[in-house]
Every structure is written in structure tokens, then in C-alpha cells.
Amino acid sequence: MLETVAASKDPIPNYDETKRKFATGQSLTQHMTVGEWLELWLDGKKALRKKGKDRYEVDIRVHLIPRIGHIRLDRLTVAHLDEMFAGIAETNIEINDANILRRTAVDELKLIPWKGVENRRRRKAIKETIDAMPPFRRITGVATQHHIKATLRAALNVAIARGSIIFNAAAHVELEAHRRPKALVWTDERIAEWLRTGIKPSPVMVWTPEHAGQFLDFLADTGERLYGLFHLITFRGLRRGEACGLRRTDRNRAGGTLTIATQLVQDGWEVIENAPKTDSGERVIDLDEYTDEILDDQALRQDGEHLSYGEAWIDSGRLFTMPDGSFIHPGWLTDHFERLVELSGLPPIRLHDLRHVAASLMLAAGVDIKIVSETLGHSESRITRDIYQPVMPKAARDAAEATAAMVPRGTVRRPEAAVDPRVEQVAQVALDHLVAQIVEAAEQDGRTVEQLAQVALAQLAERTVDATANQDGHTTATHEGAKIIAFRPRRIPA
Fold first, then answer.
1. Residue 205, CA atoms < 13 Å, CB-side half-sphere
2. Distance (Å, rounded) from C-alpha 204 to C-alpha 188?
3. Pairwise CA distance, residues 184 & 191, whole Å
4. Which of 34, 207, 283, 429 has the fewest CB atoms within 10 Å of its CB?
């Protein structure tokens, strides 16, 4: 080591660091770079699923190795990483500017007519300009930057465990806070604003129970062949890949259950079959009788398609398939769902947001949070509570009313509601008419006015209670007396 240092005229290495490397059997003359270590670390991730490994590989190949791969592993500092993320921010600005220029040129091209020599010349010139521009690219957002940091931190932790380094620089880098978009319910006010501006209030939007019922009714009215799949996601909250991966053998008709044991995952455009997203994702969910009947109809439809295709039928073994029996591509299903939502006239949501609808319905029905979490396949109920309970504004409203009712206040302390004087006039006329009827009845009946007035008040109170009890409620989020709006029991004939 000393001979190598003398030949290269490098500073003499730190004694404690040299002692540590010698004790762990590391080379004292050859030094691993960050890039070499990241590739070695990724190769060792044998138990990682392909999608997770691909995500690590993108972070390493696209960001980490080009920017810090040449630095010696044992000399990586926080300053190096600050410089890396500053470079990513500068690249984002360049990408955004290039995207604006390209979009401007594309919009200009659309405005030029096809006819005319001069117009064709201009179109050709603009097309050549667009071809010379870089393609549209996505910026490296805050969420991706946090994932890059997490990838490097995990790799450096393993290097520390093996004795290669003693300091994890990635653990001390500060990035802009990343906040998950909040799920919002499509209220009338938000729908009106979306229709006016075309902008969604949040990337994650949730339908009300009425919207979900309208969508399912639309599918039934139009004879949508995958009605059962969308019904299942709406009420039981399956993930997209889980719904596509369901096999006929996963359904227990006698027991009324469905086993979630596999999923179809999109990798690029290639489809890979593997286990559910988490260990808790492998689960058994119960089905209601109505859903069982819908799945029966779906099976009959599939049998009819099998007969019509004959030998050309592809036996994929899936519960939901394309018309020829082949499996449903997850990417195709997303596009198909978006087309159906647009045709239905409902405000837009993502296919994954149907899981939010299912969770909201279960929570509104008073289902225990633990059962909701297990049905959705979450690893712990805290995730379910954090993601889905804010979606239920009725729950927050009931909680506010219950809190206010706990503190007794005098009537003089409560604000008086503004009353329409016309209402008071109508009420006074009705009261005068009622008093006149009671006086007339007392003269004919022989009972006193006070006795008949008490009978009238008792009947009025009884009618008020009956009217309140018979009102059509929609969704309430309390655990006692919860009620879910009933969808029309309609199925598509097989």
C-alpha cells in the first residue's frame, strides 16, 4: 500500500481506516467506486421482485452512475449528493424549456392549412425543426428524487454492514418535502369548476356513492361485457393487476369467497405474472350474494364466447378475459375504463380510484377499519385510515356536530337563523286555521279546547317522527345506524 501511495504521490491513508479495511479483508491498493458498488449491490438483490429491481436499476443507470459513479465509495460526501440533486434540478429546467419549445412548434403546425404551396413549405420547415428538437421528456419530480435517495441510502447501508465504509452520506441529504396528493370527493361545486376550467381539483378524485351507481347502471344499460370486473373493483377494492390476474379456480362459489393469489403486472408493455404487491395482498375476500350472481352471469357469458370461438379460443384460465379467452392487459384495461368514464358523462377518476370508492363505501357502512384493511390488502390498518378516512366528509361533519352537541349552551347564545318572512306568514295562517278548527270541534264534541289541542299536538309529533324515519338517506359515516345508498339490482344478461 505504501509503495502504491509513494508511486502515485497520494496522501498516506488514515491509519484507522486502513486497519478496518485490513481486518475485513478488503484491498488496500484498489478502491471501489460508487458505480461499481451500486452494480454489485443490485446484482445481490436476489429476492427482489422484477418490478422493484427494475425501479432500482433505473435510479442507478439514469441518475446515480452518470452523476456520482466515478467517485470513490469511501470518499463520497454529502456535498457530492447536494451537487447531484442540484444538477437534477437544472436538468429539469432544461427539459421543461425544451418541452415548451416543442409543444409551441407542434401547436403552430396544427394551425397551418394543408392547401397552398406556401403553407406546405411552412409545414415542411416546421416539421424539420420539430425533428431536430429533443423529444418530449418527463422531469425528475420530487417523488422520484426521494426514491433515488432511498436507493442510494439502502446500497450504502449494505456497504457499511460489510465494512467498506463507515458513513452513509445519503442519510444526511435534505430534499424538498414530498406530499402525496389528497383524495377529494367530486362534489357539485368541484364538478362545476372542472366543467368550467377542465382542471381536476386533485390528481386523486373519488366518486360519491351516487356516481358509482350511475356508472354501474351505465355499464348495465350499454351491455358492457366486463361489467362484473368493474363491479368487483367498486365494491371489494381489488387492484388493477389483481383483477386481471384472477383465475377461475380462485373463486369458491359454495363458500362465497374469492382468493387473491396472483396478479398481472405491466413492465413496459410486457405483462408479468407474480404474487400480489405485499404479503398481506395474498388474501381471501368474502362476496355478497348479488356479486356472486353477477360473477355467475360473467361465467355464462364467457362460456358463450368459448363456444363461438371454438378451436380459436385461448384458455388462459382467467376469471375475466378478452372475447377470445386471452388475459386482459392491465394497460388496455386502464384505457378502456377511461373511455367508459368519458362516455358515461361522469367526472373523471382513475381506475385505481375505484379502490377509494370501495373503501369509502365500506367505511361509510360502519365496517371495522381492520376488516376494510384486510379486504383491500393493506399491510396495516394505519395505511387504510390515513389514505381513505379523509375522503369521507360526512364523517368529519358528524364528528363536528357531535362535538358541538357536547357543550350545553343557552338559547340566547345560539345565533338566530334568518327566517324568510313569507314562511312566517304561511305558518301564521296555518296556525289560525288550526285553532279555528279546534274551537269548532270543541263546540260539537263536548270536550274542552285544551283537550283537543293536546290530541292535535300528539298526532302532529307522531307524523313528524314517521316522516323523518321514512326519509331516503344516502351515505352516513357513523358506525351506528349507517346506511348505504342502494343501487338498482341490475345485471347484464349472459
1. 18
2. 17
3. 11
4. 429
Q: Look at residues 251, 257, 247, 245 and name the one whose alpha carbon lies nearest to residue 285.
A: 257
SS3 state at 407? coil
CA-to-CA distance for 207 and 200, rounded, in angstroms? 13
Radius of gyration of the chain (CA): 33
C-alpha cell at 191: 364538478
**Per-residue confidence of the chain (494 residues) as pLDDT tens digits?**
888 777 877 777 778 777 877 877 777 766 789 999 999 999 988 877 777 888 899 999 999 999 999 998 988 999 999 999 999 999 999 999 898 999 999 989 889 898 888 999 999 999 999 999 888 888 898 989 999 999 999 999 999 988 888 889 999 999 988 777 777 889 899 999 999 998 888 888 888 888 999 999 999 999 999 999 999 999 888 989 999 999 999 999 999 999 998 999 887 778 888 877 666 668 888 898 999 999 999 999 999 999 999 999 999 999 999 999 999 999 999 999 999 999 999 999 999 888 888 887 787 777 777 787 778 877 666 666 655 555 555 555 665 666 667 666 555 555 555 555 555 666 676 677 777 777 777 777 777 777 777 777 777 666 655 554 444 433 333 334 444 444 445 555 55
Integer Cα distance of 185 and 182 in angstroms: 10
Q: In terms of Cα–Cα distance, which of 258, 207, 262 is closest to 232?
A: 258
Residue 207 burial (CB < 10 Å; 0-12/13-18/19+)? buried
For residue 194, the Cα-to-chain-centroid distance in whole angstroms is 19
Q: Which three cell numbers stand for residue 178?
A: 414530498
Question: What is the pTM for the complete model shown?
Answer: 0.63
Which residues are bridge partners to 283 per DSSP? 260
DSSP string computed for 47-99? TS-HHHHHHHHHIIIIIIHHHHTTSBGGG--HHHHHHHHHHHHHHHHHHHHHH
For residue 261, which of 239, 245, 240 has the smallest C-alpha distance? Answer: 245
Beta strands (DSSP E) in 148-280 are 184-185, 205-206, 251-252, 257-260, 263-267, 270-274
Calculate helix-pair angle for 449-469, 421-445, nearest 10 degrees.
130
Alpha helix locations (H) across 367-420?
369-376, 381-388, 393-405
Interior CA angle at 167 toward 161 and 173, to 5°? 120
- Please tell me the distance from the alpha carbon of residue 262 to that of residue 273, in angstroms, as a whole number: 7
Phi, psi dihedral angles at 140 (to 5 degrees)? -90, 95
H or E, element range at 284: strand 283-286
C-alpha cell at 274: 407474480
Beta strands, E only, 69-193: 184-185
